[in-house]
Structure formats: structure tokens, C-alpha cells
Amino acid sequence: MAKISLIVNGNPVNANVDPRTLLVQFLRENLRLTGTHVGCDTSQCGACVVHLDGKAVKSCTTLAVMADGHEVRTIEGLAADGAPLHPMQEAFREHHGLQCGFCTPGMIMTAVDIVHRKGHELSDHTIREELEGNLCRCTGYQNIVESIAAGAKAMANSDLA
Amino acid sequence: MYEFKYHRPATVRQAANLLIKNEDAKVIAGGHTLLPVMKQRLASPPHLVDLSHIEGLDGIEMKGRSLVIGATATHHAVATSPIVGEAIPALAELAGLIGDPAVRHKGTIGGSLANNDPTADYPAACLALGATIVTNKRRLKPEEFFQGLFTTSLESDEIITKVMFPLPKKAAYVKFRNQASRYALVGVFVAKRPADVRVAVTGAGSEGVFRIASFEDALKKRFSPKALDGLTVPAEGLNSDLHGSAEYRAHLIAVLARRAVEAATAKA
Q: pTM value?
């Protein structure tokens, strides 16, 4: 077992984990943060995307021990419980950016990462290129692209990053 | 995934000692090749030595006429580095074409080279630019380093520390992606260097990355897409699979080489 200490959604977490525990397993099974999903488990679909030190990563291809000493943000960390949704979440709701919802946490975490890197004015082309590592089997992406463009703009006028 | 012990050395020397002490230990940095293989139980190293916390191993800097990239520099770091963008824009572009944004945030140049996947992008850049691969023990030319499919001349306790790229006069990388995996079905890196021209191909060779002497000779005489008119690559020795036949790959190499020369010329 390995001792790890990290920050998850702003809260310090200490745990003993088997080194082979994936970050996504640790988040879901140890911390019960089940918003992060396991889709393909082969780093292709993006349902497991979380932010590690502010950058989008696939938590199914990251060991929990590798996150020791680092900061993780999951979909649960975007907006406080009971508070209004994060602008990107709100945009997905408003623009019907989801159907079954399985890919949505990963889509939204990726979307927020895109805004951090590329700013608030995103062309459809940029969004589609940047969504390369996130698969959706329902929507055909059209509404996801619209949601992200709107969410990016809305984030400019929000306190939530 | 089978059980393993995890080590997090603070220096390259500590990492090398861990590799000497623990037989069959594997080095990990971004983990984007090794972890998927371990999940499939195709690899079961009893020890993992994580390089990602070794300070100074991910630096990017100019040293004289060479661009020096640390082994744990991520694809994202290389793709967005103003230093790389200024020195060898083709290399920044190449890094930006690897995987997807989340993969680029984790995957490293050292990991890509040490794995020597026959469809990886960096090996083509190293071979075409005539890079020097620096380890904790020695300096290797790409011709010595790449030893065929997923094979390199790295010894069991040897760790890549940095890669030195001499600046080319002109360079470009053109990649034809597999539509599903986004790996290179074929990728061609062309570099016009002070004394010669090099054309390196990834994705196509059954023994991994290789150079095309006939294209290089023609381009040395005249660095223009027209210089390649009438030149072809034999399909013999090229990969043939459900994504494309050897003949198709041979055709792509010729097409992409022309496009790469065009792109390199347009940039200068």
C-alpha cells in the first residue's frame, strides 16, 4: 500500500491505496465521487476526464499514486452543492448538450479546460478539434458544440473558473 | 493490472539505482503507453519508477544552435512552447498532432521515444532532424537508438534525460491519421539541414521509422516538390493491415513527402 495526500475539489484527502489503483477508481470508489465516469477504460472516450493541476487528463490512465501531492478537480468541484450550476453546466442544460448523459462530465471538464487554454470566443472548428478525445454516442455533437461555445462566453462573466 | 511497487525518485541517479536494484522494473512518466499495456496484462512490471517528479527533467531551452527538450516535457508543453515554436515550428506542430488534448497533457517525448511505437510521431522527427538522444550514460544518434519495432538500444538501467535537435534550415511534418486511432497511418518528416536533406517516415515501415535515400538525394539537388516527380517507394517491407495495404502506404509516402516539402518551403 502507498500513502497519498492530495487536494480534491479544494479539500485535502489522505489515503492508503494499492499502487495499481487508477485515479478514476480512487475518485469513484474511495471518495464516492461518482460523477467521473469510466467509459472505454482505454483513454479514448474521455468520460473520465478530470483536471490534474488545472489540466484535463484521463483519470483512467493515471494512477492515484501519481496524483500524490497534486490537485484534482472533478465535475463535482465545478459548483458548490445547492449553488447555481457552473456556466458550462448551465450551457449544456440550456442547449440540450446531452441525451443519456454518460459522456457529459468528461465533456464539461474538457470544455472548461478548452476555455482555460483557448479563451472565451471559440469557433465551431476549434471546439470540434479540441473535442477529439471525447466521444458521445447520442447527440451527434451538434448541441455539445453549441453548448461549449455558449458556456465559454458565459464563463467570461462568471466568478466560477 | 497486476500488483507492483511504486517508486518516486527525486533524481535521475536515484531512478537509475532503482532500475539496477529491481530487476524488470519499468520507467513511467506520463503513463499513456505503459498503463494501457499493463491493464491488458501484456506487461506486468513488479516495480514502476516514476520520473515525473524529477526536477529539471522537463526543461525546454536553446543551447547554442540546438533545441534541447527534457525527457519528461509533455507533448502539450512542446506544442505550446514559444521556444520550440521559434526554433523548429514543425516540431511544435508535430507535438500538437499527438493523441488528443488530455493525452498531450500527460504523454512525454522521452516516453514516446523509449517506446518506439512504429506509428509514433517523434521518432520521425528525431531521425529527420538528426537529433541526439541523451541518456544518463551516453549520447545516441537516432540510427543507433531505434532498433526496430518497439525496440531501442536503451539498456535496462538507462534513462533518456533529454533530446537535442540541431536547428534545420527548413522542416515540416505531414501526418495522415488513422481515422479511428489518430495514430499516423503514415507520417513524413522532411528536414533541410545545413549540409543535407533528410526524409523520415513513420507508420509505414514494418521495422519502424526509416529514411528514404532516393528522396533525400533528389531533394538535396533541388529542395522542391518537383524534385520528387516520378520517384516512388517500393511497397516491399511496408506494413499491410486492415487500415491500409503496403501499396497504399507506399503511395501515401510519396504524396505526403511532396506535401511536406511544399509546407517546409512555404514556411521559410
A: 0.96
